[in-house]
Write a structure and sequence with these properties.
By secondary structure, the protein is an alpha+beta fold. The protein is built from six helices and twelve strands. It has one domain. The strands form four sheets. Strands 2-1-5-6-7-8 form a six-stranded antiparallel beta sheet. The longest helix has 49 residues. The N and C termini lie far apart (81 Å).
């Protein structure tokens, strides 16, 4: 057998293996996609419940989420809309689409997100009487190394924080990554968002003086992570401010949402 024949056979076998492997990988991706979508949905629900302090390991995620109503808000008007199907709406994709978002000026863009989508998905928890108990809002903004994505939960007054949690970021473990620390997250419930009509809540350098006049609006800073801490303050103030959810929260309180 000539060396050329041997090389040809080797190439044919290698090519055949590549084809077979690509078919297997593609087939697996197609077969597993429904399961991946289900897991993705469950993870989103888990993070929403966790941010609101409602996560109960003794119940399934779907059982707990049955208490939550999903609605779409038009951020341009601060009112609910049925124009968008919440199940099909991709909020991240919309934020990058000039036809589905608005460019922010440098002054407006505290969270450094560049554009604000026209519509946002919000989550409402009602009590047994049908009154709103908690309002859970999606937030995102720039940290030091990444964009942080999470949820802020508010009590029914639209001003008192019920909780906060980030489900995606790439901040430095042990520094900016401390946004995942349960101890730090436990500092948020009970804090106030608005002061004199402005979103004033934010992180400070060091620890909050519980007796201080500003304590209701202050959160302990993240040691060694000044830029991540500043990013968290900016993104929370932006999304709870006049260019974010503040008009919606005002409409919700007045019954005009």
């Amino acid at each position: 057998m000539s060396s050329n024949d041997s090389v040809s056979k080797t190439l044919i076998v290698a090519f055949s293996l590549c084809i077979v492997c690509s078919i297997i990988v593609s087939g697996a991706a197609v077969i597993l996609k429904p399961a991946q979508e289900v897991n993705k949905t469950l993870d989103r629900k888990r993070n929403i419940l966790s941010a609101a302090g409602m996560l109960d390991d003794g119940m399934t995620i779907d059982e707990q989420f049955s208490q939550v109503t999903t609605r779409v808000v038009d951020l341009r008007t601060g009112k609910f809309t049925d124009e968008i199907d919440a199940e099909k709406y991709d909020q991240r994709k919309a934020a990058k689409d000039p036809a589905a978002s608005d460019a922010l000026t440098t002054e407006q863009d505290k969270a450094k997100v560049s554009r604000r989508e026209h519509f946002a998905i919000v989550y409402l928890v009602e009590d047994s009487a049908g009154d709103i108990d908690k309002i859970i809002l999606p937030v995102h903004g720039a940290g030091l190394w990444s964009t942080l994505y999470g949820f802020v939960a508010l009590e029914s007054d639209g001003n008192t924080v019920a909780g906060l949690g980030f489900y995606e970021h790439a901040e430095t473990p042990g520094l900016g990554g401390e946004v995942d620390n349960p101890r730090w997250k436990s500092l948020w419930p009970g804090k106030q968002v608005y002061r004199d009509g402005q979103a004033a809540i934010g992180l400070i350098k060091g620890s909050v003086d519980p007796a201080g006049a500003n304590a209701p609006w202050q959160i302990d800073g993240l040691a060694g992570a000044t830029l991540t801490a500043r990013g968290v303050t900016n993104l929370v103030q932006f999304w709870l401010g006049e260019d974010g959810f503040e008009p919606f929260l005002n409409n919700l309180k007045s019954g005009e949402a």
